[in-house]
């Protein structure tokens, strides 16, 4: 049985992350862990809200704000538990009360998949995607990460980015282990070559197609020409709007053209598609 963890800010839980986690856990018959990151530095209120006329912190207001936060945290857990019970999913709740990134990184050592919303910051402040938290998480995580958009859509297609480098093949292999062969969604393998490169075959064409035939026998192959961060986005914007995109890590070993930070950032900024990113 797979173990899936979903990262939840208990002060403002992502309904999209929870819904994605519930649906994948149900379809894969996986055990789901709701990881509630209760970092003590993360509060719903700002310091100036506790000041009174003497510009000193009011203990009464401080206590009230903390009580409200405690209530929000409890309500978030109830929301998750009710949703998991309704779908009859085997689940567990973890409360991590220290530094969010460290806690989540440690949790990832013991998981097959981590699900998190792309705009997550685990702070009072909002940021454009990819947030600093997501960037840091991708550098530190020990399991594949599924970064999901702010709203849930049923997956209609799987797109695998492949350039012949080990980052790409490892991501595709890890995805195939987590998500076994399914005929319900079409699979497309996309390769981007520079305009100077000849031919319309994917790198290591015979080996790649032999591998894919065993895991996703109906997969199609598309070769584009140009810059990956431009061609991939343009290609996907014209196709099915609810793709799940599979790609490799960008920080370990050799950096390939299709797996560098700019490609991931552009995909997060330009598309509302879940990204399956493998770091190992």
Describe the protein's architecture and organization:
By secondary structure, the chain is of the alpha/beta class. It has 2 domains: 146 residues, 3-Layer(aba) Sandwich (Rossmann fold); 122 residues, HUPs (Rossmann fold). The protein contains 8 helices and 10 strands. The protein has a 10-stranded mixed β-sheet, with helices on both faces. Helix 7 packs parallel to helix 8. The radius of gyration is 21 Å and the shape is elongated. About 3% of the residues have low confidence.
Give a quick rundown of the structure:
By secondary structure, the chain is an alpha/beta fold.
Query: What is the CATH architecture term of the largest domain?
Result: 3-Layer(aba) Sandwich
> Class by helix and strand content?
alpha/beta
**Percent in helix:** 25-40%
Identify the overall geometry: elongated
CATH topology assignment of the largest domain: Rossmann fold
Task: Average the pLDDT over all residues and give the rounded result.
Answer: 85
Query: Helix and strand succession?
Result: EHEHEHEHEEHEHEHEHE
Keywords for this entry:
280 residues, alpha/beta, Rossmann fold, 2 domains, 8 helices, 20% strand
Blueprint of the fold:
Blueprint (H helix, E strand, L loop, with lengths): L2 E7 L5 H14 L2 E7 L21 H28 L4 E6 L3 H9 L4 E5 L14 H9 L4 E4 L8 E5 L4 H13 L8 E7 L11 H11 L4 E6 L2 H10 L5 E6 L12 H10 L4 E4 L2
Parallel strand pairs: 1-2, 1-4, 2-3, 4-5, 6-7, 6-9, 7-8, 9-10
Antiparallel strand pairs: 5-10
Helix pairs in contact: 7-8
């Amino acid at each position: 049985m797979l173990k899936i963890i979903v990262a939840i800010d208990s002060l403002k839980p992502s309904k999209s992350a929870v819904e994605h986690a519930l649906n994948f856990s149900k379809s894969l018959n996986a055990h789901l862990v709701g990881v509630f990151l209760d970092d003590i530095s993360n509060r719903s209120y700002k310091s100036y809200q506790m000041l009174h006329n003497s510009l000193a912190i009011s203990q009464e207001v401080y206590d009230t704000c903390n009580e409200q936060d405690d209530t929000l945290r409890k309500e978030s857990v109830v929301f998750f538990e009710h949703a998991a019970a309704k779908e009859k999913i085997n689940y567990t709740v973890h409360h991590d009360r220290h530094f969010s990134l460290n806690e989540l990184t440690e949790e990832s050592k013991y998981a097959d998949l981590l699900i998190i919303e792309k705009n997550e910051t685990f702070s009072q402040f909002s940021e454009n995607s990819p947030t600093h938290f997501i960037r840091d998480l991708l550098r530190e995580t020990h399991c594949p990460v599924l970064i999901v958009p702010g709203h849930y859509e049923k997956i209609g297609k799987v797109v695998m980015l492949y350039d012949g480098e080990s980052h790409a093949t490892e991501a595709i292999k890890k995805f195939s282990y987590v998500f076994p062969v399914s005929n319900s969604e079409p699979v497309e393998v996309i390769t981007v070559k520079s305009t100077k490169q000849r031919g319309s075959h994917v790198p290591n064409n015979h080996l790649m197609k032999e591998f894919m035939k065993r895991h996703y026998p109906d997969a199609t192959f598309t070769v584009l020409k140009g810059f990956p961060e431009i061609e991939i986005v343009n290609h996907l914007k014209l196709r099915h709007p609810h793709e799940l995109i599979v790609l490799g890590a960008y920080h370990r070993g050799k950096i390939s053209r299709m797996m560098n930070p700019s490609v991931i950032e552009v995909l997060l900024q330009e598309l509302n598609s879940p990204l399956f990113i493998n770091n190992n």
